[in-house]
Design brief:
The complex is a heterodimer of chains A (about 550) and B (about 325). Chain A is mostly helical and about 550 residues long. Chain A contains 23 helices and four strands. Chain A has a two-stranded antiparallel sheet. In chain A, β3 and β4 form a beta hairpin. Chain A starts with a helix and ends with a helix. The relative contact order of chain A is 0.07. Chain B is an alpha/beta fold. In chain B, about 35% of the residues lie in helices and about 30% in strands. Chain B has two domains: about 210 residues, P-loop containing nucleotide triphosphate hydrolases (Rossmann fold); about 70 residues, 2-Layer Sandwich (Alpha-Beta Plaits). Chain B is elongated, with a radius of gyration of 24 Å. In chain B, the strands form three sheets. Chain B has a six-stranded mixed β-sheet, with helices on both faces. The chains are: A mainly alpha (about 550), B alpha/beta (about 325). At the A-B interface, α1, α4 and α16 of A face β1, α2 and α3 of B.
């Protein structure tokens, strides 16, 4: 057995721990389960089906078990996904801080066995608590007559999600040094990555929905949790189940099972690469440049595949797809935007989401892969030591100029490809045929990437995140204050301010380039001047930051 | 065998270790001394492959730590300066875990764990939880863990820092026994008397540089420093201060007894200068009944080197 798992069992599953955590788990689980079961069991039989001809309250154990299943699943998720994730992150960070991780690093165990040992050894108690809920699950499955195959499917995804969350926590623990901070950063990251990011799946980027257990639950289990006598799901449940369908990808569809495991596998692989590097040497950046480029390419491939149906046929999945099917006249839109402007709004939402997602990916990859001043200096010294004229451009210490240009070109090419697809499509009309529709967002993205890289390479963490916070977030906050003060009076000033931040500038730019909206809504606001402000600001920023980087490189 | 060649370690702009070279042969104990921030721990961490040097190479039994870290790590036992232990494990479980992680199984593992617990006098505490141990005991548990896979090279950062005098003597004996069995030992310590008693060779580091290194005798002999001379007179000699002031090698005469018969004086020079001083005192009619020149200690050397600016020191 893996020594780290043995250690985890010895540390966390001694008799007194077994007793206390076991009692806790059993009491909590039985209370919640029985409460849900008994409540769900009470079913009102309608008068028309009642033998007595009147409304009758009867007990149907099957309904109780079905009602209790969701409660049980949430409790199991709490044990493994919430408590377990926090445990893995905080202990990893604590061991890093005290130097215990260095002992592990020096043992001849391979990095994969160390990673596995941490994933299954640290949350040993949480797994035990989960184990104690299994009799309730068995009762639920048998009494509730939930199909075994669907249950197995759900729990396969549940465990792959648990491993994914724990690996995320382990990686965060190795990167964030303070144990308490690591525990919370891990929980917030898990929420962000696996709860909030999947919401973007509703904006047409379907692959993001499959990062969580939620689609599997809705698709595979929810239809079997209907109370006996109920013929169809409620409105919300019906919509939720509808999301669990074949995923449109390029011109074909992919099975949701394949997609879920594919997406989770991809993330697991990424996190595994990071953990592997950190186990080899703590000072290595979390990702190498070739891995980062590979990941970015995969992201673009997934984006291209998911957005292909929208840009070629005007069809989208999720809430966006449903909104597109609504009658424009019945929607709550300003009068100027009614009458056929739906596709234009959908296009703005999708394009803005595309760029915001890419900006987020760019921020993460530049932060991880572009050398900070320390690493850059080490590169210069290594270059001298090896007697080479320049550091290979894919090395960790190499300046990130080529890397950033490559990432920008990949993203802009994908956007250009999607744009060309929509221009050449007969079904999609809400798109500008002007070259500016690709050139302007492309150039702004490119400049944002260059200034981000220049900031990363000349400043340390405080400077870099100060730059990101100051330039990307502060204008939005200022706009918020101005909006509260006088929305209409300050609208032009707000737009000027918002054009300074790439997060708010892209939607403006895309609205400006949208032919349908600008022809009808131009009298509302003057976007031309704010677009000029944004472009000039991004050009100036690149020039200033590149110059200061060049100067600091020379010194 | 440890060979460190032209080692440089930078933390950004800060040069923590600057072109340090030394070697430790099998069966010997090398002591790294120096003030806080001299770069000792960085050197040890780089040898343990936990810190990537900016420049230079490190060989452990011929294996490069930079190019074959996995192979080099198997040969190394590293004990850091602050003793972190798994608080919720018992002492034997702590050692057993590392024996397991280093690939020992079954009876081999059990006997090795027992041997290490006996070596470090922890056998009677083996069922205690690590969190209940004192700092000194934790240090011993850590030493037991370091020895558990029988490494040929030991890197010990401040091993005696938290130990009581008895445990220090025990540690010294353990280390000498390990060195006699052919192990290469590198110690970093602030306890200079410990270094002097335990090590065959020492290296003095300051501001990242190795300012002096060699065997103990070499380092102390080659150092034309100062030593303290004790003079005991058979009868009071009022002219002693005048005589001493005329001898350039002597300074700082100090009366250390009320009977005005015992004095201490600082001598600049080594044994040769001391015999010349004695001859001068006798020829000047000073009734010297006892004259002893205190042998210079590592502590004196430490204080002397530390007080000198770096560019005035003789580089080894």
């Amino acid at each position: 057995m893996n020594p780290l798992i043995v250690r985890g069992i010895r540390e966390r599953l001694r008799f007194k721990n077994l007793l206390s955590s076991g009692l806790f788990s059993l009491i909590l689980c039985s209370t919640l389960y029985l409460a849900a079961f008994l409540d769900g069991m009470q079913t009102i039989l309608p008068a028309e089906v009642s033998p007595s001809g009147e409304k009758e309250l009867i007990s149907i154990p099957m309904n109780g078990a079905r009602e209790a299943f969701t409660v049980l699943l949430i409790l199991q998720g709490f044990y493994l996904m919430f408590l377990g994730t926090g445990r893995v992150a905080s202990v990893t960070a604590e061991e890093k801080e005290t130097g215990l991780l260095d002992y592990q690093r020096m043992t001849p165990m391979s990095p994969p066995s160390k990673i596995l040992g941490y994933l299954f050894g640290l949350p040993a108690r949480e797994y035990f608590m989960f184990f104690l809920t299994l009799p309730f699950l068995l009762h639920c499955a048998v009494v509730g007559e939930i199909p075994l195959l669907n249950l197995l499917h759900l729990y396969a995804v549940f465990f792959s999600s648990v491993i994914l969350y724990h690996l995320t926590a382990h990686v965060i623990g190795m990167v964030v040094s303070k144990p308490r901070a690591a525990s919370w950063v891990a929980r917030i990251s898990v929420l962000g990555l696996y709860i909030f990011l999947p919401v973007l799946g509703q904006a047409g980027i379907s692959f993001l929905s499959f990062l969580t257990i939620i689609p599997t639950y809705f698709g595979k289990i929810l239809p079997h949790l209907l109370a006996e006598g109920t013929e169809k799901l409620g409105r919300f449940e019906g919509q939720a189940v509808a999301f669990w369908q074949e995923v449109p990808f390029f011109t074909t569809t992919v099975s949701p099972i394949t997609f879920t495991f594919g997406m989770q596998g991809l993330l697991l692989l990424t996190l595994f690469c990071t953990a592997y590097r950190k186990w080899r040497l703590d000072s290595l950046p979390a990702l190498s440049k070739p891995t980062a480029i590979g990941l970015f390419l995969i992201l673009q491939f997934l984006l291209l595949g998911s957005l292909w149906p929208f840009f070629s046929l005007g069809e989208a999945s999720g809430l966006l797809g449903q909104a597109l099917q609504l009658d424009p006249a019945k929607t709550v839109l300003p009068n100027q935007l009614k009458h056929g402007t739906h596709p234009a709004i959908a296009m703005i939402v999708v394009q803005s989401t595309f760029f915001l997602l890419n900006l987020a990916a760019l921020l993460v990859l530049i932060n991880v892969c572009c050398p900070n001043p320390h690493l850059r200096l080490r590169g210069v010294q290594r270059k001298e030591r090896l007697g080479i004229s320049q550091i290979p451009f894919l090395a960790d210490e190499a300046p990130g100029g080529t890397f950033v240009v490559l990432l920008s070109c990949i993203c802009i090419s994908v956007f250009a490809c999607l744009h060309y697809l929509s221009v050449s499509s007969e079904q999609v009309t809400a798109v500008s045929h002007s070259i500016n529709a690709v050139f302007l967002p492309g150039i702004v993205f490119f400049f944002s990437a260059l200034s981000l890289r220049a900031a990363r390479e000349q400043w340390f963490n405080i400077g870099f995140w100060g730059y990101v916070g100051g330039l990307w977030v502060t204008p939005m906050l200022a706009c918020l204050v101005l909006a509260v003060d006088d929305f209409l009076g300050n609208s032009q000033l707000m737009l000027h301010l918002a054009s300074l931040s790439p997060i708010t500038f892209f939607p403006q730019l895309i609205v400006h380039l949208s032919p349908d909206l600008m022809s009808e809504g131009s009298q509302l606001i003057n976007l031309s001047s704010t677009i000029q402000t944004g472009i000039i600001a991004s050009i100036l920023l690149v020039i200033v930051l590149t110059f200061t980087l060049f100067r600091s490189n020379r010194t | 065998m440890i060979e460190v060649r032209d080692l440089k370690i930078h933390y950004g702009d800060l040069v923590a270790v600057d072109q340090v070279s030394f070697s430790v042969s099998p069966g010997s104990i090398f002591g790294l001394i120096g003030p806080n921030g001299a770069g000792k721990t960085s050197v040890l961490k780089a040898i343990a492959s936990l810190l990537e040097p900016t420049y230079g190479d490190i060989l452990v039994n011929g294996k490069s730590v930079l190019h074959q870290p996995e192979k080099a790590r198997c040969l190394l036992g590293y004990m850091p300066d602050f003793p972190p232990v798994y608080e919720d494990l018992k002492v034997w479980e702590f050692c057993d875990y590392f024996a397991h992680a280093y690939g020992l199984r079954g009876e081999d593992k059990r006997s090795r764990v027992l041997e290490c617990l006996l070596t470090t006098s922890l056998n009677e505490h083996k069922h205690q939880f690590c969190k209940t141990l004192s700092r000194g005991m934790k240090q011993r548990a850590l030493l037991a863990k370091t020895l558990v896979h029988d490494p040929s090279v030991l890197l010990l950062d401040e091993p005696a820092a938290n130990l009581d005098p008895k445990s220090r003597i025990e540690l010294r004996n353990i280390l000498k026994k390990l060195a006699d069995s052919g192990k290469t030992i590198l110690i970093s310590s602030h306890v200079l008397s410990e270094i002097e008693d335990t090590c065959d060779s020492i290296g003095f580091m300051q501001s990242g540089k190795m300012v002096k290194s060699g065997t103990l005798e070499e380092v102390l002999r080659n150092n034309p420093g100062t030593s303290v001379v004790r003079i005991h007179l058979s009868s009071p000699a009022p002219k002693l201060p005048d005589v001493v002031s005329q001898i350039p090698a002597l300074s700082g005469l100090e009366l250390i007894s009320e009977d005005r018969l015992r004095f201490e004086v600082t001598l600049k020079g080594n044994q040769t200068e001391a015999s010349q001083v004695l001859a001068q005192l006798v020829s000047s009619g000073i009734p010297v009944s006892e004259f002893s020149c205190q042998k210079q200690k590592v502590e004196d050397l430490f204080l002397q080197l530390e007080s000198q600016p770096l560019n005035k020191q003789t580089f080894a």
